[in-house]
Amino acid sequence: AVAAAVVPAAGRGERLGPGAPKALRELGGVPLLVHAVRALARSRAVGLVVVAAPPDGVAEVAALLDNHGLDGKDIRVVAGGATRQESVRLGLAAIPAEVEIVLVHDAARPLVPVEVVDAVAAAVRAGAEAVVPAVPLADTVKRVEPQAGGGPEPVVDTPDRATLRAVQTPQGFRREVLHEVHEKALAEEASGGLPPVTDDAGLVERFGGRVVVVPGHEEAFKVTRPLDLVLAEAVLARRRA
Ligand code: CTP
Ligand code: MG
Questions:
Q1: What's the whole-model pTM score?
Q2: ipTM for the complex?
Q3: Which residues contact 147 (CB under 8 A, 6 or more apart)?
Q4: What 8-state DSSP symbol labels residue 236?
Q5: Pocket test for ligand 1, best of 6, 12, 83, 182 (most atoms within 8 A of CB)
Q6: For 66-105, how does the pLDDT look when each residue is reduced to its tens digit (9 = 90+)?
Q7: Superfamily for 3-240?
């Protein structure tokens, strides 16, 4: 079964600093979003890519993707929302009902290797309801008590690093599972609110589903801060050398 991918690309990129919306910022002269869509389109597992664009940038994004050869894959652009979760939900709504496997991939992860895309799709095809690519942590992590005034933060504990993973995208799902958890999250939001979840697999966990991890890749990192763009340029230059 061929999978569809949703690409949330409607964020502003506040942490990257002033400029165009993050998905439209350039890496090697090409917008991050175009890199990300190409990385997905390169996978034989992916037949359709739905981009959730900044609401005021749908026509611009559609034109941009039209102008880049994308292996003849079906690319659609819809308006994203005010949160990543909403953007994913709106993208998901544009996927035809017969598609059984959906990948969700951040526009902000332009350099994900096609092997990671393939591995995530394969794990869903093999029977998992939710799959995330992840890598071991380099740093030790501590849980703290954040201080309202910004003073030194008391440490609560240090989770065993060997059991921690840093999670990437694309995350892969049985379509009906992803749809159901997004609908539930929307309903519970309307009735008072839940603490925010920062990835789609987190929603599956919240509602009792099973999520499994497959190996991610160091080049699937998210472009979040200015230094990440410096690193991404270096990785791209190395690939082109
Ligand atoms: N995203 C989205 N819709 C939103 C917010 C985020 O589609 N309302 C997307 C971003 O475009 C990005 C992905 O979700 O591809 C991951 O989010 P993040 O890295 O946080 O991007 P931004 O929200 O744009 O950045 P920041 O949080 O620094 O503003
Ligand atoms: Mg954000």
A1: 0.97
A2: 0.99
A3: 153
A4: H
A5: 12
A6: 877 676 789 999 999 999 999 999 999 999 999 999 999 9
A7: Spore Coat Polysaccharide Biosynthesis Protein SpsA; Chain A (3.90.550.10)
